[in-house]
C-alpha cells in the first residue's frame, strides 16, 4: 500500500504526460505481483470493488471525532476521504500489501465493512490511508486514462501498445499472464472472444500534397463527425470499441442489439435522426453513461456507418486490398437498419473532390477521407494509404480575458488562455486554448498578460480586454454548461491580432450562428483558393492528436475561468476522437 | 492585576500596559519586543527594539542598519518598565523566542510567537516555560494537520530527483528559516552537491552559515545552464515571475505545512508538495497545552476556532484575540 500511495500521489500532482508514464513504468518495474496488477487495474478502472459510500465514511468519522472539529476540518480540506485520511489517528504498523486491501474490500459484507475499514485505517500512515479510501470509494481522480496506463506497459520493452490492446479485454486483474508476457514470457492465450484489433488511422493532407498522387489509385468517402469505432460480434459476444480500444458497449445497448452479424467492422458511431445524421452534440448525450434511459434511446437512437471490414464470417480480410474488402462490404447483410455502409464519392480529379469537400450535403460531415485502392488494413497510422482532408477550421476573432500559468516546459509562462466574445457591451467567455502559438509568440503573450493584469486569482490572472486572438475550432455546439450557451470544439489560437482593436472582435451571435450551420467558410475558401492547414507549432500539433483534444466541456470551460485545478483534464480515452 | 489589564490587543498589536511596550507590533511604536524575524512579526520603524541578537541581526539584514532607533539584545532576564522580561527558545527559526512577562502580584504570561517542537538543525529547540496565561498561535489549529517526519519528506524529494535526474527541482521555501531548514535537511540526508539559491535567499542563508550552521556548498541560481546540482531554492513568489522561465522543464516543489492538503498544493501548481513546517502541528499544539495546563489560553492567529473548541473539550479556558496583520499563510 505504501508504494501504491506514493504512486497515486505522484500521478495526481504530475501534469506532464511523459513524466506520468515514467512514474508508472518505474512503479510497475519495481513492484511484485499481484500488487502491481491490482494497482494497474485500479488505474484502468478494471478493479470492481464494493463501493464505499460517503455516508459510510461520515459514520466512521462521527464515531471517532468531535463533530465541530471534524466539520471545521472538512470545510478546510474540501474532500471527505482526504479529511478522514488526515484526521485519523492511527498507529502505522508494517506495510499492508495492496492485495490484502483488495481482498478485504471484496470479501467483507456490508455490515462488517465500517469496522473493517476503520481497522485498516488504524494501521496505515496518512498518505496510505488516502490511497486506501480512494480505492474503496472507487474514485482515484488522478488524471490518467486507461490508455496512458497501457502505454506505460508498452514502454517496458516487451509487446507494443497495439499488441497489448488487442488482448486487453480478455484479461482480468491482477493480470499475472500479462506481466509475464511483458517480461519475456509467452503471449497469453486469447482468453476472450470479440477482441479489439488495432485500427487503421489516417494522416492529414491538403490539396498540394494530393496533386502528387493519382486520383485513379484512390477512393474517397465522407468523414462523418461521430466516434470512430470497431464493432465486433464473435460467437455471441458483441463489443463496441473506441479507436483506442476502450469498450464502450454499455452506453450503446441499441447498437449492440442491432449487431446481428459475425465479424469485426470499422465504422462511425452516429446518432440518426430524420433520415440523416445528427450532430456530434447529440451523440455526446449518449457518451460516458453506465446505463441509458429508454427516453434517451428513443430521442437519440445510435447507429453505425461502416467504412471497412476486418473480419467477416470467420475470414480475416485485413491483408486484402481495399477494393476486395469493399466488395465484401457492399454485398454484406448486417441484418439491421441501424447499420449502413459509407458511400464512395464520385470524382475524377482532386479539384472534383475539392468541390465536393467544399459543399458537403450534411453539416456533420467534417471533411473527406482518401484511401488507396490497393492498401491492406494495417493497424496504427501508416503514412500514405489513408488520408484525412478535413474541412477548413472555422475562426472567430476573440478577446483575451484570462490567462493561467502552465506546467512543465511552460512553468512560469501564462500559457492557458480564456477568451471571450462581445455580447452587448460585455465580454462573455466562450472557450480556452492552450496552443497554436509558437514559443516566441508564447513569450509575447506572457509579457502581454503580465503587463495588462487587472486581477489575480491564484494561478489565474484577469487581463484588460485589449488583445484580439483569432481562434480556430472544429465546430460549435449548444451548451447549457457555459454561460455563453455555446461550446467550441478543439479551439486553438491560430493568429494573434496585435493590430486589431478589441471593440472590433466578433460578437457572440456570430459564433452562435455557426451552430450546425453548413460550412460556408469552407465553401468560400474553395472559391478563393484553398487555405493550407497549419503545420505543427507551439507545444502541440493541431491535427487533433492531443489528449483531451475533444475539447467539449473542459477545454471550453469558459464558465470557470477561475478553476485552479491546473492542467487541462483529459476526457475519457474514447472521447479523444479525430478519426 | 487582572490578566486583561496587563496585556491586551490594540490596533498596533499586543500591548503590555505596565511595561508600556508592544509585542510584534504591526505599526511603528516607541518600544517593541520582537519574537522572531519574519516580516509580519518584525517590522521596521520602531523606537527601541528588544529581541534576541539573531533577530536583531536579521532585521538589520532585511531592513538596513537603521531599522530602529535603539537596539536592545535580549540576554538573560531584564526589567522593562515594571515588568520582568525574559526570552526563551521557540524552535521556529534562527533567533526565534517566546517572551515571558511577569510583574509582582500579576499572572505570568508567555507570548510564544510562532513555535515548533520538531527538532530543527537551524535553531535552538523549543523549551517549556510554565505560565498562567499562554499566548499561542494556531496556524495549524485543526486536527487534520499532522506533519510527517521532515526526513521522510526529504526522502521523497531525493526519490523524485532520482526519478527525474534531468530535471531541476525548484523548491519554493520562505527566504528566512524554511530555505535554510530545507538545505540543512538535504545535508543531513547526505546530499552534498551544490545547492543553488535565488538572490532573495542568498543573504539570509549566508548569515546562517556565519552563525556556524552547516549549509554546505551554495551557488547562485543566475546561470541555469551551469547548474551543477539539481536543487534550486527560491521564495515561492519567484514561481509567479519570469525568473522561473530560465529553467528547462523544472519540477516545482513547495516546502510548507499547507502542502498536506491537496487542494492547497494544486492551487499553487505544485508538482511535488513537501510537508515541511516550522510551526507546531495539531498534536504538538494540543500536547503543549496539555503539558503547560495554563489557566488561560489566548489564541493570536490561525485556525483559532479549532483550537478554542479543543480547549473547551479539554477543560481549558481559551479565547481568540483576533489579532490582525499576521499572515496565516506565512510558513
Features:
heterodimer, A: 579 residues, alpha+beta, DNA ligase i, domain 1, D-amino Acid Aminotransferase, Chain A, domain 1, OB fold (Dihydrolipoamide Acetyltransferase, E2P), 7-stranded mixed β-sheet, 7-stranded antiparallel β-sheet, 21 helices, 20 strands, disordered C terminus, B: 331 residues, alpha/beta, Metallo-beta-lactamase, Chain A, Rossmann fold, 6-stranded mixed β-sheet, 8 helices, 25% strand, globular
Question: Could you outline the blueprint of secondary structure elements for this entry?
Answer:
The complex is a heterodimer of chains A (579) and B (331).
Chain A: H1 2-13, H2 17-30, H3 35-44, H4 54-64, H5 67-77, H6 80-87, H7 98-107, H8 113-122, H9 126-137, H10 146-154, H11 161-168, H12 176-182, E1 203-204, H13 207-210, E2 218-224, E3 227-234, E4 237-242, H14 253-258, E5 263-273, E6 276-277, H15 280-284, H16 294-299, E7 302-312, E8 315-316, H17 322-331, E9 339-341, H18 350-358, E10 365-372, E11 386-390, E12 394-405, E13 414-423, E14 426-433, H19 439-451, E15 453-457, E16 460-463, E17 468-473, E18 475-478, E19 486-489, E20 492-497, H20 508-512, H21 520-528
Parallel strand pairs in A: 1-11, 7-9
Antiparallel strand pairs in A: 2-10, 3-4, 3-5, 5-6, 5-7, 7-8, 10-11, 12-13, 12-16, 12-17, 13-14, 15-16, 17-20, 18-19
Chain B: H1 3-6, E1 7-10, E2 13-16, E3 21-23, E4 31-33, E5 46-51, H2 53-63, E6 68-73, E7 78-80, E8 83-89, E9 97-102, E10 109-111, E11 133-138, H3 150-163, E12 169-172, H4 178-188, E13 195-197, H5 199-210, E14 218-220, E15 231-234, E16 251-255, H6 262-267, E17 272-274, H7 282-292, E18 296-302, H8 304-313, E19 317-320
Which shape of chain A, going by the Cα principal axes?
A: globular
CATH class identity of the largest domain in chain B: Alpha Beta
Helix tally of chain A? 21
| CATH arch. level architecture of the largest domain in chain B | 4-Layer Sandwich
Secondary-structure arrangement, i.e. CATH architecture of the largest domain in chain A: 2-Layer Sandwich
Span between termini of chain A: 40 Å
CA gyration radius of chain A, whole angstroms: 26 Å
Count the domains of chain B: 2
**SSE string of chain B, helices as H and strands as E:** HEEEEEHEEEEEEHEHEHEEEHEHEHE
Instruction: List segments of chain B where confidence is low: pLDDT < 50 over at least 5 consecutive residues.
Output: none
Multimerization state: heterodimer
Amino acid at each position: 500500500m505504501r508504494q501504491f500511495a506514493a504512486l497515486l500521489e505522484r500521478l495526481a500532482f504530475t501534469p506532464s504526460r511523459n513524466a506520468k508514464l515514467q512514474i508508472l513504468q518505474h512503479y510497475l518495474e519495481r513492484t511484485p505481483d499481484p500488487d502491481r496488477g491490482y494497482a494497474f487495474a485500479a488505474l484502468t478502472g478494471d478493479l470492481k470493488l464494493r463501493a464505499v459510500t460517503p455516508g459510510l465514511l461520515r459514520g466512521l468519522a462521527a464515531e471517532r471525532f468531535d463533530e465541530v472539529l471534524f466539520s471545521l476540518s472538512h470545510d478546510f480540506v474540501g474532500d471527505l476521504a482526504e479529511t478522514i485520511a488526515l484526521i485519523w489517528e492511527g498507529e502505522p504498523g508494517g506495510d499492508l500489501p495492496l492485495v490484502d486491501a483488495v481482498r478485504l474490500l471484496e470479501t467483507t459484507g456490508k455490515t462488517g465493512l465500517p469496522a473493517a475499514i476503520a481497522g485498516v485505517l488504524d494501521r496505515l500512515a496518512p498518505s496510505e490511508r488516502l490511497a486506501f479510501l480512494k480505492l474503496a470509494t472507487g474514485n482515484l481522480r488522478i488524471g490518467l486514462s486507461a490508455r496512458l496506463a497501457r502505454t506505460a506497459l508498452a514502454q517496458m520493452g516487451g509487446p507494443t501498445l497495439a499488441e497489448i490492446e488487442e488482448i486487453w479485454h480478455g484479461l482480468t486483474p491482477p493480470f499475472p499472464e500479462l506481466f509475464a508476457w511483458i517480461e519475456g514470457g509467452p503471449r497469453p492465450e486469447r482468453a476472450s472472444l470479440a477482441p479489439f484489433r488495432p485500427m487503421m488511422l489516417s494522416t492529414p493532407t491538403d490539396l498540394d500534397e494530393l496533386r502528387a498522387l493519382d486520383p485513379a489509385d484512390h477512393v474517397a468517402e465522407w468523414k462523418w463527425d461521430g466516434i470512430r469505432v470497431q464493432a465486433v460480434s464473435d460467437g455471441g459476444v458483441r463489443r463496441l470499441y473506441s479507436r483506442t480500444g476502450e469498450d464502450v458497449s454499455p452506453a450503446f445497448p441499441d447498437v449492440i442489439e442491432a449487431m446481428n452479424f459475425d465479424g469485426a467492422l470499422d465504422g462511425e458511431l452516429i446518432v440518426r435522426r430524420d433520415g440523416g445524421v445528427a450532430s456530434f452534440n447529440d451523440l455526446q448525450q449518449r457518451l460516458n453513461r453506465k446505463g441509458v434511459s429508454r427516453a434517451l434511446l428513443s430521442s437519440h437512437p445510435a447507429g453505425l456507418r461502416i467504412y471497412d471490414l476486418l473480419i467477416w464470417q470467420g475470414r480475416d480480410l485485413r491483408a486484402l486490398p481495399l477494393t476486395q474488402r469493399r466488395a465484401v462490404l457492399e454485398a454484406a447483410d448486417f441484418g439491421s437498419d441501424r447499420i449502413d455502409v459509407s458511400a464512395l464519392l464520385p470524382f475524377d480529379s482532386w479539384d472534383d473532390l475539392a468541390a465536393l469537400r467544399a459543399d458537403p450535403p450534411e453539416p456533420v460531415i467534417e471533411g473527406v477521407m482518401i484511401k488507396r485502392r490497393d492498401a491492406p488494413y494495417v493497424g496504427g497510422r501508416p503514412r500514405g494509404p489513408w488520408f484525412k482532408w478535413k474541412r477548413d477550421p472555422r475562426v472567430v476573432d476573440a478577446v483575451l480575458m484570462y490567462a493561467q500559468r502552465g506546467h512543465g516546459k511552460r512553468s512560469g509562462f501564462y500559457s492557458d488562455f480564456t477568451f471571450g466574445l462581445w455580447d452587448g457591451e460585455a465580454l462573455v467567455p466562450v472557450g480556452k486554448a492552450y496552443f497554436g502559438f509558437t514559443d516566441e509568440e508564447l513569450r509575447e503573450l506572457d509579457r502581454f498578460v503580465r503587463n495588462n493584469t487587472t486581477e489575480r486569482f491564484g494561478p489565474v490572472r484577469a487581463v484588460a480586454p485589449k488583445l484580439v486572438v483569432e481562434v480556430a475550432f472544429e465546430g460549435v455546439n449548444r451548451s447549457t454548461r457555459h454561460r455563453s450557451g455555446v461550446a467550441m470544439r478543439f479551439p486553438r489560437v491560430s493568429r494573434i491580432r496585435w493590430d486589431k482593436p478589441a471593440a472590433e472582435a466578433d460578437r457572440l451571435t456570430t459564433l452562435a450562428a455557426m451552430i450546425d450551420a453548413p460550412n460556408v467558410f469552407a465553401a468560400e475558401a474553395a472559391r478563393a483558393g484553398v487555405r493550407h492547414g497549419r503545420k505543427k507549432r507551439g507545444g502541440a500539433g493541431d491535427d487533433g492528436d492531443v489528449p483531451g483534444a475533444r475539447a467539449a466541456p473542459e477545454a471550453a470551460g469558459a464558465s470557470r475561468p477561475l478553476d485552479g485545478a491546473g492542467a487541462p483534464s483529459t476526457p475519457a480515452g474514447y472521447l479523444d476522437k479525430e478519426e | 492585576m487582572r490578566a486583561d489589564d496587563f496585556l491586551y490587543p490594540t490596533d498596533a498589536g499586543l500591548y503590555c500596559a505596565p511595561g508600556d511596550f508592544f509585542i510584534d507590533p504591526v505599526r511603528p511604536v516607541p518600544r517593541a519586543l520582537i519574537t522572531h524575524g519574519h516580516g509580519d512579526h518584525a517590522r521596521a520603524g520602531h523606537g527601541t527594539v528588544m529581541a534576541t541578537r539573531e533577530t536583531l541581526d536579521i532585521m538589520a539584514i532585511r531592513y538596513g542598519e537603521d531599522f530602529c532607533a535603539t537596539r536592545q539584545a535580549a540576554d538573560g532576564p531584564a526589567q522593562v518598565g515594571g515588568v520582568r522580561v525574559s526570552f526563551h527558545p521557540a524552535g521556529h527559526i534562527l533567533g526565534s523566542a517566546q517572551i515571558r512577562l511577569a510583574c509582582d502580584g500579576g499572572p505570568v504570561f508567555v507570548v510564544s510567537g510562532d513555535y515548533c517542537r520538531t527538532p530543527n538543525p537551524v535553531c535552538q529547540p523549543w523549551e517549556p516555560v510554565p505560565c498562567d496565561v499562554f499566548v499561542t498561535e494556531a496556524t495549524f489549529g485543526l486536527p487534520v494537520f499532522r506533519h510527517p517526519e521532515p526526513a521522510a519528506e526529504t526522502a521523497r524529494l531525493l526519490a523524485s530527483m532520482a526519478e527525474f535526474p534531468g530535471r531541476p527541482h525548484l523548491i519554493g521555501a520562505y527566504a528566512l528559516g524554511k530555505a535554510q531548514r530545507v538545505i540543512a535537511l538535504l545535508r543531513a540526508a547526505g546530499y552534498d552537491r551544490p545547492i543553488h539559491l535565488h538572490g532573495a535567499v542568498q543573504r539570509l542563508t549566508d548569515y546562517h552559515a556565519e552563525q556556524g550552521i552547516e549549509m554546505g556548498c551554495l551557488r547562485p541560481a543566475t546561470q541555469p545552464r551551469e547548474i551543477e546540482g539539481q536543487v534550486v531554492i527560491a521564495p515561492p513568489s519567484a514561481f509567479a515571475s519570469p525568473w522561473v522561465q530560465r529553467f528547462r522543464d523544472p519540477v516545482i516543489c513547495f516546502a510548507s505545512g499547507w502542502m498536506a492538503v491537496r487542494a492547497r498544493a494544486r492551487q499553487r501548481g505544485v508538482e511535488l508538495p513537501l510537508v515541511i513546517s516550522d510551526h507546531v502541528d495539531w498534536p504538538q499544539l494540543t500536547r503543549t497545552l496539555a503539558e503547560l495546563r495554563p489557566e488561560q489560553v489566548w489564541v493570536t492567529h490561525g485556525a483559532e476556532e479549532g483550537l478554542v473548541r479543543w480547549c473547551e473539550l479539554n477543560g481549558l479556558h481559551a479565547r481568540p484575540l483576533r489579532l490582525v496583520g499576521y499572515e496565516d499563510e506565512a510558513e
